[in-house]
Design a protein that fits this description.
The complex is a heterodimer of chains A (about 650) and B (about 210).
Chain A: H1 4-14, E1 41-47, H2 51-54, H3 58-69, E2 73-79, H4 83-91, E3 110-114, H5 121-130, E4 146-150, E5 166-168, H6 172-185, H7 196-204, E6 209-210, E7 215-219, E8 225-230, E9 239-240, E10 266-269, E11 271-272, H8 282-286, E12 291-292, H9 295-309, E13 313-317, H10 327-338, E14 344-346, H11 354-362, E15 371-376, H12 380-385, H13 392-404, E16 409-416, H14 423-444, E17 449-456, H15 473-486, E18 492-496, H16 499-509, H17 515-524, H18 538-548, H19 552-556, E19 571-572, H20 577-588, H21 605-608, H22 610-615, E20 631-633, E21 639-641
Parallel strand pairs in A: 1-2, 1-3, 3-4, 4-5, 9-19, 10-13, 13-14, 15-16, 16-17, 17-18
Antiparallel strand pairs in A: 5-6, 7-8, 11-12, 20-21
Chain B: E1 2-9, H1 18-31, E2 48-50, E3 59-68, H2 75-83, E4 90-98, H3 105-108, E5 109-118, H4 125-134, E6 139-142, E7 145-148, E8 153-159, E9 168-176, E10 179-180, H5 183-189, E11 197-206
The chains are: A alpha/beta (about 650), B alpha+beta (about 210).
């Protein structure tokens, strides 16, 4: 195996021949380099796409900080090489390496993949292959690193079950510490792990860790999933997602890239989760309960981040910024405190209310490039089905306010492809965009612009739409053609996705274990960087389905019956299937739910985390309070609780 | 107030482009908590000027940048603050106060000196250099445009071999707006692949103002 100094010297030559070599050098401000030989447990944090994207991932920054704080462990970063770099690396027999010390991934003890979305799967296999690590978990021996993955996509880990030794389900802040402790206790001198099997057994006992090789999936005659059985007694039948009861203060000493990245700014998380319950939204379902960060802590984080990085932009991140309890004081304090510093503040995910316009206005957003609203659907009927009950009147009022306050462009995000959607609903997108433009013209004249971003609906597991079939590529094309034909003219702009790329996301989202073979075959046939239009290889995927003998439409276009058992049910987000079923049925009847801060709909999260809620009373959780346990004092003076 | 900074761009930052180096400077000044001035208008830009773009992959021991601050601070203080905010790969060497009315920094640059270290040995290096210097014109094409490289070469010679005996060439090239000689172009003209060369900018020479 090549040593890190061999890798470093070969890199010296390769870097002169590739595009954007700054992606591969590391060495940026605030990077942490520890003494490799003195550290027991070495973790490679891998985002299986290029540096430019991966460096914006807050999850990785959090783990990087936490792991490097420990005296016995280190974390280094690795990203996928772009195709020109990969070709050069394969020619020179260079493995995938870490940016900090240029060690091969195979030199690490733990490789942790971040999988926020499904289209990273083939690049994950590619990363393992580039590092000379067996792609299938079963082929790894005592001297191979432990390969794990976490992130939103792993709430349905099954399509990737064959490649990962373990998955982290849910939030990583606490569980990463327990994993490192556990791995550390199995490390010994010559081999990486004394017994891989025993290590995996111990890992499977940790709350939030799923070891797929201890489970076996059974299917019915018709190809649907029947059940999953544990292969060992000690293994939990259900893996409950991990949460942190109180969000620990976030890292602020971010690595400052030398080259431009997608979100070249300091990410500041203001809260986790969302109480709105949009039925298509995976993040909204799997990130419950909603937990907020205290206002003072956020301000302090911003201050620290700016001092240690010099970033000229911050992003206040959450799934629904305007729902943060202290959003008005937050915005006011940010603009007062940092107004003389030419700081740009991005506040994504604003609700369609005029108060959102006030918020953006208070931030004195210097760019005034565009104001984004996401009605998702253009008719009130469809908005009821997806549970985003905004009225068109509300939207038009907000639009007027936005143009009046000086923005010239409104970006409207829509989603097409729900099976209940008719051509009238699609047509309404055109009408709505033109209505918004009309209002804009009344206020600011010809400068008014409307950009419509129309994405395609992908039913996600663990959501009320997990039963729902997708539109076929043909149906989507008809809808998109209609939009392209009519949503045009001065001031109008339309963006859409290739419906075939959406199909891939749809196959993988609700895939079962059999899909692993499809992923592997597609990768063997050349699929990688699936999220990049120019690299997406539809034919490789179709051929893979064909050679594995699976029908892709089984995963996408089939209507699932209410009593169907899903391949991801042994992974518990704590939102119950009973609740999801009820919400699905409500959607069929066009019945909506209000914000669950106003009324608890018993989704299941609170009973599952009752004890955590009890120990964390007050306003940081948005779930209702639970009563104190009655404490009785026994005669021997010890207290017990009931 | 206008300050001129002399700095080195070392290995770690050699792949940071001109634009990204500009942004790196903005962040250094922000971290240094100095009152950086911004342009007026719709889309305020930080008032930072770099003298001359350094091609990707080159290192330099003599780059120049100018920053404008909203108030006048002692040079010593500015330097101390900046030193505390450096980024790996960028070393601040000198800070001085500049007449705000002086011409813009990029317009002041006259020529640049480079040291080229070759990782392969050329027995006929002297002849190759002589051939270049004795040419009347060297017509080359870059990005689809034809130009004459020869008048952009002010001087060129072989340096006495240094560490590990690698051959080194010193180049003095024009670096005026619209007339900039590139060391990799000179190497290519000599029949040497720029990929086997380490190129270091050792000096930026400014015009003398009367």
């Amino acid at each position: 195996m090549l040593s890190n100094s061999d890798i470093q010297s070969r890199l010296e030559w390769i870097l002169r021949t590739v595009q954007k070599p700054g992606r591969y050098t590391g060495g940026e401000l605030n990077q942490i380099v520890k003494n490799w030989d003195e550290i027991k447990t070495k973790v490679a944090l891998v985002f299986p796409d290029i540096y430019d994207l991966g460096m914006s991932n807050l999850g990785l920054a959090i783990l990087y900080d936490l792991i490097n704080r420990r005296d016995d462990s280190l974390a280094e970063r690795a990203f996928s090489p772009w195709t020109d770099m990969e070709a050069a690396m394969r020619r020179q027999e260079l493995p995938m390496f870490s940016l900090e010390t240029k060690h091969s991934l195979a030199d690490f003890d733990i490789i942790g993949f971040s999988l926020p979305y499904e289209t990273l799967y083939t690049s994950t296999l590619n990363a393992l292959d580039l590092s000379g690590i067996p792609i299938h978990s079963k082929d790894r021996g005592p001297n191979h690193p432990l390969v794990i993955a976490g992130g939103h996509a792993t709430f349905n880990p099954e399509p990737m079950h064959a490649f990962m030794d373990a998955f982290v389900i849910g939030e990583g802040e606490e569980v990463i510490q327990e994993i490192i402790d556990c791995v550390g206790s199995y490390q010994n001198g010559d081999l990486k792990f004394s017994s891989r099997e025993n290590l995996l057994h111990e890992l499977s006992k940790i709350w939030g860790v799923y070891v797929p090789s201890f489970y076996y999936a059974h299917y019915n005659q018709d190809g649907t999933f029947s059940q999953i059985k544990t292969l060992h007694e000690a293994v939990p039948e259900k893996v409950v997602k991990r949460i942190v009861p109180k969000l620990p203060p976030q890292p602020t000493k971010f690595i400052v890239p030398y080259i431009d990245t997608v979100h070249n700014r300091a990410p500041i998380e203001i809260m986790r989760g969302c109480t709105r319950g949009c039925r298509f939204c995976h993040a909204g379902m799997v990130n419950r309960p909603v937990r907020e960060r205290p206002l003072d802590e956020i301000i302090d984080s911003i201050d620290r981040a700016l001092r240690s990085t010099g970033f000229e932009e911050i992003g206040l991140l959450s799934l629904s910024s305007s729902d943060y309890t202290h959003i008005v004081p937050l915005v006011n304090q940010v603009s007062e405190r940092f107004s003389d510093q030419h700081l740009s503040v991005s506040l994504p995910s604003l609700r369609i209310e005029t108060v959102s316009v006030d918020l953006m206005d208070a931030l004195k957003d210097s760019r005034r490039s565009g104001f984004t609203l996401a009605p998702e659907a253009a008719t009130e009927r469809m908005r009821k089905i997806i549970n985003k009950p905004v009225s068109t009147e509300q939207l038009l009022n907000s639009a007027k306010e936005i143009y009046t306050r000086g923005w010239t462009t409104i970006k409207l995000y829509f989603m097409i492809g729900h099976p209940a959607e008719t051509m009238e609903d699609v047509d309404a997108i055109i009408t709505l965009c033109k209505d918004v433009r009309h209002i804009g013209r009344q206020v600011i004249g010809k400068r008014a612009k409307v950009h419509a971003g129309v994405s395609t609906f992908v039913p996600k597991p663990h959501t009320p739409f997990q039963w729902v079939p997708c539109n076929t590529v043909g149906e989507i094309k008809i809808k998109q053609d209609h939009l392209r034909k009519h949503l045009r003219g001065p001031g109008l702009k339309l963006n859409w996705n290739d419906p075939r790329e959406t199909q891939l996301e749809a196959w993988l989202s609700r895939g079962d274990r059999r899909m692993a073979e499809v992923i592997y075959t597609a990768w063997m046939k050349g699929a990688k960087f699936d999220a990049w239009g120019e690299h997406f290889n539809y034919q490789a995927w179709m051929d893979a389905f064909d050679s594995v003998g699976l029908d892709p439409t089984f995963y996408t276009h089939r209507s699932r019956s209410l009593d169907e058992v899903f391949p991801w049910e042994h992974i518990s987000t704590t939102v119950t299937k009973t609740f999801l079923t009820q919400d699905y049925l409500w959607s069929l009847g066009g019945r909506t739910r209000i914000d669950c801060r106003e009324q608890c709909f018993a989704c299941g999260v609170l009973p599952a985390f009752e004890e955590l809620r009890r120990r964390n009373p007050g306003e940081l959780w948005k779930c209702p309070e639970v009563k104190k346990k009655r404490v009785t004092v026994r005669e021997d003076g010890e207290s017990t609780s009931r | 107030m206008r300050y001129r900074i002399t700095f080195a761009k070392t290995e770690a930052m050699r792949f940071t482009s001109h634009l990204d180096t500009n942004r790196t400077w903005e962040r250094i000044v922000r971290r240094a908590q100095l009152p950086l001035a911004y342009s007026q208008g719709y889309n305020p830009r930080p008032k930072i000027n770099l003298a001359s773009a350094l091609p990707l992959g080159f290192t330099s021991s003599n780059e120049l940048a100018e920053i404008w601050l909203e108030k006048e601070l002692p040079v010593k203080k500015v330097k101390t603050h900046l030193l505390g905010a450096e980024t790996p790969g960028l070393k601040i060497i000198e800070v001085e106060l500049v007449d705000p009315k002086a011409p813009k920094l990029p317009n002041l640059v006259h020529s640049a000196e480079y040291t080229v270290t070759l990782s392969e040995h050329f027995n006929d290096l002297t002849e190759r250099i002589t051939r270049i210097l004795e040419s009347e014109s060297l017509i080359r094409e870059r990005r689809g445009k034809k130009y004459d490289l020869r008048p952009l070469i002010d001087a060129m010679d072989e340096l006495p071999p240094r560490n590990q005996g690698n051959q080194q060439i010193r180049l003095l090239l024009a670096a005026r707006t619209g007339a900039t000689g590139r060391p990799d172009e000179v190497l290519a003209e000599m029949g040497i692949s720029p990929q086997i060369a380490k190129i270091h900018r050792s000096k930026l020479i400014l015009q003398k103002i009367d």
